Every structure is written in structure tokens, then in C-alpha cells.
Amino acid sequence: MNHQRTFHKQLLRSQQGSVLLMAIISGVIVCIMFFASIAYIETQAKMMARSANKTDRRIVMDGLYAYTVNAVKQSWCLSSTWVEELNCTMNHPRNTQRLLLSDETLLFIRNSGTPHPEPLSSTRLKSISTTVQLSNFTESHPLFSVVRPLKEEYSQATFTIERDATAISAVRGKEVPLKITIFLKHKSERQYDETLVSKNIVYPRELSYFSLILANDLYLNTKASSASSGNNRINSTPIGSSSGLRFESPVFVNGDLHLPASGFRPAMKNVTFVDKVVLGGGKIMQDNQPFMVKTAGGEGSMFNYELPNFAGLLGGYELDPGRDTGLDFLYNIVPGDTNSFNAQVLCRARLMASYDLLITNPSQLWARANSASANRAQLSFNVGNVDNFVEQATINGYEAITTVPNVATAAMSNASTTAGTPIMKGRVYYNGLQAPGGARGAYITDFYVHREGTVTLYPTGTAGSSITIRTAPLVVSGRTQFNQVDMTVEFNGTLDVAPYKTNGSVLFNSSPSVKFVFEAYDYGYLNGNNLRIPGGAPYFRNKTNGVTFTRSGADMVLVANTNNLGVNFNKWQTNSGLEASPDYSFPITSEYIGLHVPKDTPENLAEFDDRCFATPNPGNSNADFSAFPAATWDTSFARQARNAWMFNADWSNRSTPGYYEGVWTYGTSTTFTTHSLVRECRIDPDATLIAGMFACETFRIMARSKPLRIIGTVITNQLIIEPSAFNAGIRWSSIYHPQATQELINAGILGRDKAGALMSCAPGTLAPLWQANIGISDRYAHWVCNPVSLRKADPFKWTTVDPDCGIVNARDTLVKCKKQSKRFLIKEVSRGKGL
């Protein structure tokens, strides 16, 4: 019994000791775990801090890169603190455009006289670099808010942009590989230095990149369209789930994009911008003020399609630094320059006049009475500013034919006149002339007039009175002008003209008079024969005019031109010449007057031709033999945009050359069309595919029930879409949209050779471009199967509607170009250094 009691006591003591031991051990373990957890928590906290810091650094580096990319896209000149500088020239050491210059552009810069660094090769920069202390990023600096999170840890940022000579992609066009490097230097620990290296391809943002280009603001279901301001409105229209208007390529709005009113419900859904909207110097507006989301990325404001009043801004938007001023002048929103092209138009007309008779069909023979007295008058004859008097080599200039009886010699030219050089045919009507040995009546004598010389007319033979006609070309500043002849008419002796009876047949009138009618030999005559056929309006087959003298006592006095309207001294007049009818009418347009109406103060057209027909000096090593010589980069052609965009050759002979003033309807024909400039482009209801590049004052999509696919670029002042077209469905993209290539191939637009025959564009039939031995035929096949082959009109290759080419000053007869890209696109190819 005692033994059991003792055993239980020992067992109890043993258990108590074990519990105590376990408690001690547990306490130790808890302590260890406690202190270990503190270390773990501290480690995790440090790791989270480092992760947060790295995220901050990543965000900062992304912001610095995006800012630098924008500088390149907008062609900035950057200061030493990486801020845009407005004084941006070719001599600026950090002009981003200097990184992108091609060999051709360098030659244009040299030939134009644009100030640039010497030697010429140094104008193109290999790199731009600067280091900026973060302390210099003050609140006024555009990067201040970007770098602020790291200003306590980092001391400086180094920016480098360089042409990437190691780029693996082959350069085939205007693209330039650029490497952008951004380096952040830590204040104390080099291990925390950060570097971003990004390889990019930079290429011009051509106008054909856009599906639609609008001249001014775009209003979505607000306000109204206005042709005078260029504003456009697209109405909200209820549509089905698979219809509506989808812009699948970028859209350019030359101003603001106005969203539907803030209270508009339900959301406008009939227009969707799948790709970005680029605003030329504009903003996103709503309720006539800049649009602001309710929360920065909060619920309902995280995505563009969540906007309560417009769900179609899927691709976001991008801001250009300013308007494309060319659009303002293209559509007369701002009056443009109508005079700079006068010299160029005249030059072109004078160049073409000798081989295209349509050019001189509208010209006329103008007559002007300079002075007159008894038996004498001083006259001038002019064929306008395009036409010229042209000698007729095979005509016997001494020949004269008369209906006056018993007269052997009716006219005689002076000995210094060459027989084969007449420039006008003359006809004189003797009304009431007493013929020698015959009756008094109306008689005619035909003769010829030379550019310089004397013709003596003998109405009744060499024994009687005579009329002397002296001619000489107009001379200006010592230069002979071939479009005008000055004439002196002088009556010698007393001419026997008196009233006469006509026996009931009146030729002109029965009063005594002497009437001269002259027919000019111009570019339309060969060997005295008129080659003209009707074409265009106005059309004057014969270039004729004349003057009339009547008897006043014993003298002959100039009393009228041939239509008997009376003498109007020092004024150019037109006349039908061979008929007693009023003056020829002519279009009262500035173009007609500039080309075909003589100026009161004579112009030195011989000197003008020197400039017009000039060719570069082959002995000059820097001579510019380009079809369009170089213009300096600071030249603005914006005011000439309307002239520049009227380029269709098929419309060169319309009333306004290059401008189609009617309505052009595009129907079911599947061809790629380039038209500019058209008053109204109209899409037929039956058309299902429209492909091309168009510049139209109005672009109208008619009411329709069939889906419409538009592939190409439309530049317009007014976009009008009938409501039913939204319900039918419209897909609109540029030629570069990924799906557009196959659609154009399927339509037979792509894949046609120069003869119009279809070639196979199937992937299996085209040799891979990476092959080293690809032949010229395979290259050509790739070309005609690629949308790039559709870029044929140079203006659509410009980066702005503001022209790259134009007339520098009003005296210039040649169009000059700058070869200057103003807007760029950047495609990031790769990014390294852990970011």
C-alpha cells in the first residue's frame, strides 16, 4: 500500500517536471518564432518597399520614354533641360528632325539654301544626348510630376536618342531605326541605377494613314454642321447590334471632338472609333467645356466604352500640337492665296501653247486705238498673254488679191520684208470706191502683214492714192514681244470714196468707208491653214479684229472698230471681224483675264519666258535638276492648299483646272480611285465597296439598305450620312488595315500588273522576302499585292494637308518642294535592361 502511494507521488512529480519542461521548451520556441517573425516581417516589408520603389521607377521611366517619343513625333527641338524650344532651325544641336533626314532631303536642304551646318553631312545627326539634374525639374517643367517620386533617391537623368546602326530590320523606305536610352543615376548606390533601352522604327505619318480627315470640329449629336466653318455633326441613330459606322483606322479631326451632352441617354452607339482619334490642336469637349471624367480610373470611368453618353471611343485619342492649317485654306474656311500661282499657270500655258491647241482656243485678237488724226491712226494688235503671232513660212507675203477691176498691183511690200514671214492676213473693204474704168461700189483687197515692215495698198492702182501700213513688234526693256504688233495706218492722197447704190444688196452699208479686218496667224495655223477643231469653251477658231475709217471732207478719219461702236482710245477691244456683230464676249474670270486679256501696261513676256523655260546650269555642281526644285524649310505653302490639291490631270482643262465642280457618284465599279478636288463625292445606294483616296468639299453617303465597306482616305469639309446608312452598316478603314489587304485582293484591286492583268497574291505563290536571291519579278509581285502600291498621288503621301510643294513668290514659274515630313509615327520594336 505504501509502495503504491510512493509510486504515485514519484509519477506525479515526473509529470509535473515534464509539463514544466515542455512549457519551457514551448516558451523558447515561441520566443524564437516571435523574433523570427519580426525578421520575416521586416524582410517582407523591405521587399515590398523595394517592389514599390521598382514600380515607381518603372512608371517614371515609362513616363520619360513617352515624353521623349512625343518629342520625336512632334519634331521638337529640345533644350539642355529636355524642354521644347520654339527657335527650331537646322542649326539647333538637338533638333530631332535632324536625326531623321534622308540623303534626298539633305540635297533639298542644300539646294534650297536653307541654313544648315557645314559640311552638309553633319546636318544629319547621329545622336542627341543631354543630362539633366533632377533638381532642375521645377514645377514649370513638363516632367516635374513624372520624376517627383524619385527626386529624393536619384540625382540625374540622361536622355539619349541615336540612329540605330545595328537595327536588324531592313530599311526600304523613309523609316529610320532609333534607339532611345534613358538612364537614372542613384544618389549613393550604383546597384539602384536604372536604364531603359528601347529600339524603335520612326516613319512619316502620311495622310493615307487616316480613314477620315475632317476640316474642323466634330460634334456627336450636338450643334449643327456648317460648310463655312468646316464643323461636322453626326447624329445619334438607333441601330441594330451588328450595324452602325465603325472607323477601324485612325480619324483626324482638325479641332475639337465634342461628345454628346452629359445628360444624353441612352449612350450614342451608332458610331465607333475602333482606332485612335487624332485631334489637330483640339480637345475632347462636352457641354462646351473640356471633358473631365468623374473619377480618375474609378468605377464607370476606367474604360472609354463605359462613358454613359458615348461608348464608341475605343482607341483613345492623341493630340497634335496644332491645327493642320492647310485644311482651313483647302476649303476656304480662311481665304487662301489666289495670286501666287498666276505666274506658274501662265508659264504652263505658254509652254503648252505650241503643241496643245486647246490652250489657245480661248485667245482672241485684240485691237487698241492709241491715237488718231486726219488720214492717220496708230493701232496695236495683241493675241493675249499665252498666244503668239507665228510666221507662216510657205506663204508668199508679197501676194495680194483684189476685186477692184483694172488694178494690176493692189499692194506692195517693202524690200526689207521677207516673203515667207507674214503674221497676219489683212482684208480691206473699200465701200463706195470709184474703180478705174468701172462702177462705184464695194470692193475687197486681200494682203499680208509682217511682224516688221511696210505694206502699201493701191486701191485704184499705183497711179492713184495709197494707204501705207507700217508694223513693228512691241519692244519692252529692249526685248521683242511676240504677242503684240504695233501698226500705223496712213492715207496718202485723196481716196475717191462716196455714197453708192447697192442695187438692193447691202454688204455692210452704203456710206463711204474703208474697213480693215486682220486675221492673226498664231499657233493654230500651219502654212496659213487653220488647224483648230472645236474643243472646250470658250472657243474662237478665228483670231480676227479690225478698224474702220470714214470720209470727212477730203480726209479719212478713224471712227470705229469693226462693229461701229465708236473709237475708245487706249482700251483693248475684241471683235468678230468678218461680221457686223457685237464684240466677242469673254469670261469675266480672273484666270481668263490673266491668260488671254492684254494688260494695259505691257508685260515683258520675253523676260518671263527666260524664267519659265530656264534650265539649271550643267556647269554648276550644285545645280538642282529636280522636276520640282527645292524650297527652304521655313517656307509655308498653307495658303496655296486649294491650288495644290486640285491635281487631277483629267480635269486640267475644266473652268477651274483640277477642280470638278459637279457631283461625282461612286457606284458598283471596283476600282481604286484617286480624286481631288471634287465639289461633292456621292456614294451610290448600290455601292458595297468604295476604295480610293478622295478630297471632296462634301462627302455624302446616300440612303441605303446594303452594308458599305470603305477602304482608303477621305478628306472632306462636310460629311453627310443618311440615317438608313447607319442601319445598313458601314466599315471604314485606311488601306493599311490588316483586313483591308485581303479584301482588296479579293476585289481584284490589288494584284494587278501595269497592263491590268491579275497576278496571284496567294501566300504560297509569293517567294518569301527573306530569301537572299529573290528576283525582280517576285519583288514586283509583292509590290502589286501590297497596299503601298496604291499610294500614287504625292499629296496623300504628305504628312499634312498643308502642302509640301507650292510657289515661293508670285514671280516664280516653277513649283518648289521642301521634302519635309512634319508628323511621325513610332513603333517600339524591343525594350531591354529589365524595363
Main β sheet profile: 11 strands, parallel
Q: Report strand %.
A: 25-35%
3D shape: elongated
What is the averaged pLDDT score?
Answer: 87
DSSP summary: helix tally:
12
Radius of gyration: 42 Å
Task: Count all strands and give the number.
Answer: 39
The helix/strand class is alpha/beta
Amount of helix: 10-25%
N-to-C span: 84 Å
Question: Uncertain spans, ≥5 residues at pLDDT below 50?
Answer: 576-582
Verbal overview:
The model is unreliable at 576-582 (pLDDT under 50). With 835 residues, the chain is an alpha/beta fold. The longest helix is centred in the N-terminal third of the chain and has 72 residues, at 2-73. The strands form eight sheets. Strands 7, 10, 11, 13, 14, 17, 32, 33, 34, 35 and 36 form an eleven-stranded parallel sheet that branches. A six-stranded antiparallel sheet has the order 18-19-26-25-24-21. It has a six-stranded antiparallel sheet with strand order 20-23-22-27-30-31, with no helix packed on it. It is built from twelve helices and 39 strands.
Relevant terms:
alpha/beta; 835 residues; eleven-stranded parallel sheet
